[in-house]
Design goal:
The structure is a homotetramer. The first copy, chain A, has 3 helices and 4 strands; from the N terminus they run βαββαβα. By secondary structure, the first copy, chain A, is α+β, with helices and mostly antiparallel strands. Chain A has a 4-stranded antiparallel β-sheet with strand order 2-3-1-4. Chain A is elongated. At the A-B interface, strand 1, helix 1, strand 2, strand 4 and helix 3 of A face strand 1, helix 1, strand 2, strand 4 and helix 3 of B. Strand 4 of chain A pairs antiparallel with strand 4 of chain C.
């Protein structure tokens, strides 16, 4: 199970980025993966890394289509093959759910 | 308002990290800041950057005290001076709350 | 032009990670992209985002093949469509080359 | 030994960020730490975490003073207590120096 978090934002469009983040989240959801928006990025869950990258590429394309001329992406991935830990189980394991 | 997300984890202690993450979150909470654990990191809110750094230092110290010999920290900060946007307002602005 | 930086490391294999980082860098180089190892990550340059992701996937696969059971990936991407800025030009623009 | 990499950039000032990155690097250098600008961030070396945070705070303040109204910071830290590995030794250990 792969759990990841991505932030995508364009430079050069002002300090309010919500319009672009909305487009990115919509594109991530359209990928069919489990998607959970969090305050500093959107959490994605997939069975393989390629699906995560495909979803992030769609989100990038959506921000580009919305007018982003310089797009910053930060992606963190936790790829576990020792056990099948979802985002929810990660929180449960530290006593937060 | 500063919104940040931090992940702290030790290498060299096996693949299960929840014991260390719990210690880190406990130390972050002890800092007095608003703390929200998320699947890929813990969100912090503060009025200034120094308070964020002080909290992360405590969390690092807690993981060190728990036996971490090589500690990896990833920190993302969104420091806004144009408006007072909390973590909750960030989610609300993209229609997710 | 897309400039990116990736760090890939497995948890649970001890505190010395150089064997795994070497495999990752070798796989990144095999992708055919321009690859520059830096102290905290490896810089990649490509004309499109998909090539970056393909290279990172190969690097992940190499760390997996080397025995990584829980693999952490951090990827930062600077995707510019306003001008064609290479990694070298980024350093030159701040007077560092 | 702590090796870290920081990227600092303001949103809302256009797509060209070199003016701000220059100010940030100048402030990092003024901290007295060993500072190495790389294409996707600036590498810092210090004997303790607090010195890293102090330097990043100065860099943030410099970008704020230069007019940044919304400042994004990404910081990665590798804090090793098992051995004394500098940024140079990290590269040497993977055969890149």
């Amino acid at each position: 199970m792969i759990v990841a978090e991505v932030s995508i934002a364009p430079f050069g469009v002002g300090t309010s980025l919500s319009r672009y983040v909305k487009e990115a989240v919509k594109a991530l959801r359209a990928s069919g993966l489990k998607v959970t928006p969090c305050p500093m990025g959107t959490v994605l869950e997939a069975s393989d890394l390629a699906s995560i990258f495909k979803a992030v590429e769609r989100a990038h394309d959506a921000v580009r289509a919305a007018g982003g001329e310089r797009i910053s992406i930060t992606l963190k991935v936790d790829a576990r093959y020792d056990k099948d830990a979802s985002a929810e189980e990660k929180l449960r394991s530290i006593g937060e759910l």
